[in-house]
Amino acid sequence: MRNKNETIIMSFFLHYYSFKKRHFYIDICNYVSKGYANWAKVFNLKLVAETVNYLSENNISDISTLDAKISELSDKLYEKKEISKANEKRIKVLEEQIKDIEVYRKTKPVVEGVPKHFGKEKYRHEHEAEFILYAAAERSIKKSFGGKKLR
């Protein structure tokens, strides 16, 4: 036999969700197979049992307490989403900085390898793409790191 609290919680749960018209449970009437109907009944009972356990563990015995708990959890979820968005933006910035640093490291030997006297123009012309990439990466890195000297 159920105690009074469990009965109240169960009736509250069924009443609250029937008025909210939330169809989270599986509608057994629409299915022909007896095996599936049996599975759906068990599934629905487990879902209700989990919900009743949650409500009783968190001392939720009326709608106002449930609404307060939902509001609290929604606020926490919103905060976590905002933190996640900020982290994703930061990751994107860091990925761009990593890419720029890799380009800088790959093209630096080419840029530093310019001959001192003869063939300067020919060398620059042959490696024009590397020079352009190097300059762009250098500008981006200096901008990201506040104009600090690069090694």
Explain this structure:
- The protein has helices spanning 4-20, 34-57, 63-112, 120-126, 128-144.
- The chain has 151 residues and is mainly α.
- It has 2 domains: 4-61, no CATH class; 80-144.
- The N and C termini lie far apart (78 Å).
- 4% of the residues are buried.
Compact description:
This protein has 151 residues and is mainly alpha-helical. It has five helices and no strands.
Task: Using brief descriptors, characterize the structure shown.
151 residues; 5 helices
Shape: elongated
Mean pLDDT: 81
Rg over CA atoms, rounded to whole Å, is 32 Å
Largest sheet: none
Taking pLDDT < 50 over at least 5 consecutive residues as the criterion, the unreliable ranges are none
**What percentage of the residues does DSSP assign to strands (E)?**
under 5%
The total strand number stands at: 0
Q: What string gives the helices and strands in order?
A: HHHHH
Oligomer, anyone?
Answer: single chain
Kindly report how far apart the N and C termini lie.
Answer: 78 Å
Helical segment count: 5
Overall number of structural domains: 2
Give me the secondary-structure category.
Answer: mainly alpha
